[in-house]
Amino acid sequence: MPNIVVVGAGVSGLTCALLLAKQGHAVAVVAKHMPGDYDIEYTSPWAGANVLPMASEKDSHWERRTWPVLQRLAAEVPEAGLHFQTARVLRRAADLNLISRLGDDLFEPNPWYRTLMPNYRELPASQLPVGIHSGCEFTSVCINTPVYLAWLVGQCAALGVTFRRATLKHIAEAAGMHHLGGQADVVVNATGLLACRLGGVMDSKVYPIRGQIVLVRNEAAGVMPTVSGCDDGEDELVYIMQRALGGGTILGGTYTKGSWEPNPDPDIAIRIMKRATETLPELTGGKGIEGLDVVRHGVGLRPGREGGVRIEKEEIDGVSVVHNYGHAGWGYQGSWGCAERVVELVEEVLREKEKAKL
Ligand code: FAD
């Protein structure tokens, strides 16, 4: 049975570990941070998260392959922590010329995902808020990320995957860390943002995209609005999503490229809350920001990468590595598609190794 070490216990590493274990491989996960931790170096727990397709049509395969799985989990596996919600994507008149400023297709009129997401419809003019040029609605999911990450750990453990905390200085160290001993056949690198600092990888194309959020106890009545822009600055966003299983409602946010700042900025927090209560007054029964019941303020750093996600194999100091990092703001909604590709690449490496033995 091939031995695989997965470095990283965020949504990328855990989904890879689960699919590799399902293939019958002996999988060990090694990570500095695990589900349950809240740390600026560990992105996954900070995400909302929901599914708002953002890839261009040409790069949409990761999201296309992931959606059916998340849809099935929401419908059939309540303990995974997902539930169906109505996504409402609002395009401001003022943003029409810069709608792709985040480099994504979410706010495109007539988007490719109209045929992927159930119950897609353009909103009639009579249902558009003031200042909104057009918009659409569709059925999506919101993921209670702490619950979902813990569920992934449980699914992995049930298939014999082992978990170990360690901080690696070099990716090749992972090969010697399998619970069965010896050298692992393949190492999967799912280190997210820290791929820019890990020896043997040191990917200088990786950079943080800071996202500040507010988690509140108020509920958003099944609707997840997001707006194409706001008047508070180019890197400030408007999105609201209610997590499943009492996970509270996430108010977002920001999208600041290159910022490693780990502390929430109080002025930004006030602007986020103000925009959220203006966009969805029902959140506080019309009482505005004063009616919000805050659980916590937080900051997560999305793992951005010039040129996009890196999913490829590489030989590093004699160790076969398959990379899977750099998912920016779509790590959950592309997680299963990316992990399937990782499995394909791992199988390719194993076949090459078998051939070399003959
Ligand atoms: P991480 O979660 O950062 O995991 C990296 C793992 O590698 C950790 O376990 C870490 O400890 C380990 N590691 C790193 N270096 C080492 C080392 N040297 N030694 C040992 N272990 C190491 N995505 C969506 O799909 N939908 C959303 O709605 C959404 N909303 C978001 C909102 C915010 C505010 C933020 C910040 C992100 C959001 N995202 C969303 C993006 C998503 O959260 C990320 O793309 C995803 O979490 C990246 O996961 P990852 O597993 O690649 O990285």
From TrEMBL:
Q: Does the keyword Coiled coil apply?
A: no
InterPro entries with a match to the protein in the record:
D-amino_acid_oxidase_CS, DAO, FAD-dep_OxRdtase
The family line of this record is: Belongs to the DAMOX/DASOX family.
Instruction: Report keywords, A-Z.
Output: FAD, Flavoprotein, Oxidoreductase, Signal
Question: So which cofactors does this thing need?
Answer: FAD
Indicate what this protein is called per its UniProt record: FAD dependent oxidoreductase domain-containing protein
Gene3D superfamilies, alphabetically?
D-Amino Acid Oxidase, subunit A, domain 2 (3.30.9.10), NAD(P)-binding Rossmann-like Domain (3.40.50.720)
Q: Which residues form the FAD dependent oxidoreductase domain?
A: 4-345
UniProt organism field: Humicola insolens (Soft-rot fungus)
Q: Which residues form a coiled coil?
A: none
Lineage: superkingdom: Eukaryota
Show which residues constitute the signal peptide.
Answer: 1-26
- Has the keyword Signal been applied to this entry? yes
